[in-house]
Amino acid sequence: MKRLRPLMFAGTGSDVGKSVLAAGFCRIFKQDGYNPAPFKAQNMALNSAVTPEGLEIGRAQAVQAEACGIEPCADMNPVLLKPQGESISQLVLNGKAVGSVDAFDYYKSRQREILRREACGAFDRLAARYSPIVMEGAGSISELNLRDGDIVNMSMARHAGAAVVLVADIERGGLFASAYGSIMLQSEDDRKLIKGIIVNKFRGDIRLFDDGVKILEDVCQVPVLGVVPYFDDIHIEEEDSMELNAKRTGATDDGRVNAAVVKLRHISNFTDFDALEHDPRVNLFYCDAPGKLADADIIILPGSKNTLADLDSLRRNGMAEAVTKAASDGKTILGICGGYQMMGTAVADPHGVEGDGGHAKGLCLLPVSTRLDKEKTLKQAVFTLAQDGSGAMNGYEIHNGVTTPDGDAACPPLFTKSDGQADGCIIGGKRMGTYMHGALDNPAFVDFLLSTCHKTKTAESGISDYKVFKEKQYDMLAAMIRRHVDIEKTYGIMEE
Fold first, then answer.
1. What does the pLDDT average to over 276-290?
2. In the predicted model, what is the mean pLDDT of residues 270-289?
3. Nearest CA to 66 among 120, 24, 100, 109?
4. Burial class (CB in 10 A: 0-12, 13-18, 19+), 207
5. pTM for this predicted structure
6. Which residues are catalytic?
C-alpha cells in the first residue's frame, strides 16, 4: 500500500483524549491494511512499559503499539520524564535512565537541542519502517512560553510533515475559545499544518451540535472531522494520573471481593490493576483514607516512583498503621514493586536514586530489605507461581532496588522465573510481594489472589484472557470512531 503522511493528534489542553484517539486510529489503520506505528517525542508519566529489548517507554505508546499489532520499541517514545519529586524528574532517553533533571533546567537549557535531535532521529528511524506514523502531542499546543523549547508538538509536526488534528474536549467547556485560540496562537506556517478538528467527549444527542460544527468550522477555518461521544463502556489503559480521580473510592457489600489499592502520591504503573478492575468478582477501589481500608478484603500497595517519600507519607497520614492492622487481622496484603519494598523491614537509598537518599524502616510485613541501586532493572519476564507450579505467566520488571531476605529469615518466593531465579516473597499465604508488573493480567494469579478470601462470588469466572479482552476493546474503539469521525476525509488529508 502507498505510504501515508503522518497524522498527529494535538490538544487544546491536557487530558482531552489524545492518547485514546491515537490508539483508536492505530487500530483503524491496521484494520485497513496499513502498517502503522505510534510516536510521541516526549512523554511525562509514571506509568511506563518495557520493550522486548529491555528499554523503557511511556505506557500510552506501548498501548498504541498493541493496537497496531506490533511490539513496542524505544523509538516510539524517545524522551520520557518520570516525576519523582517537586520539580524533579527522572529522564529516560531512548529507553534508558540517564539521570534526574530539574524542571527549570530542562526547559531552559541547551540540552533541549540535544533531545530534539534524538527525538527527530527516533522519528526518522520509525518512519523508515512503518506507515502511517500516528503521532501524539503533549498538553496544549498553544503554550507560548514553552514554544522555543518545544520538541513534541508543532516543532515535531514540522519535522515529520504531519497532518495535525486538533483534539478539543467539549466536556470541560470553552470549546470554541480553546479551539480558536489554539489555532490562532500558532505561527502562519504552523496553522497550515492543522488540517482538522475532532470534538471529543460529547454528552447527549450529537445531532444537537450540528450547528456548533458549522460555527466552529466558520470561526476556525478548519474542517471538523467528527464529534466523538463520551464513553465509559470501552476500556483502554490510560497513563494519566488524572484518570485516578474517576476511579471508585469505596467498598461494596454485594458479595464481591473488595480490593483496595493504596493511593500513593507517587503511584506508578497503576495500569497493573486494570484487569482486576474489570473482573466481575472484584470491586476494586483506590483509597487514601485509613478508615476505608477496614472494609477491604485485599489491600494492594502499588508501585511508586519515590518509595521513601511515599512510605513517609503513609506513616504521617495513618495509612501505614491501617495496613499493618489489616495484616494482623488476617487480610490479604499484596505489594508490587515499590509496594513490595515498603512491605519489608527497611529501604535504603545510599546513592540518592530517589532524590536526597536516606534510609527508612519498612512496614515489617515481610522479612526482606531493599537497597536502591543506580542501575535500573528493565526486562520482560515469564514466571510461574512458586508454590503450585501453575502455567507460565507474563509480566515485566521496572525497578532500581535489589531486595534480599533478612539474615537467615525464611522467605519463600512468590514466583519462579523462567531462568530459575526467585521473585518476591509470600508469608502465611496472605502477605506477598513481587517485582512483577502485569502479574494481575494473568488469570492464574488473580485466581490465586482471590482464593485467599472467602466470598460467595469468588467462584464466578473472571476474564479468561486479558489479551483477548484488550483486543476486543481496540476493535470496539475503532468501530466507535468510524461511526463518528469522517475516516474518508481523514485519509484525504493524509494523502495531500
1. 93
2. 93
3. 24
4. exposed
5. 0.91
6. 337, 437
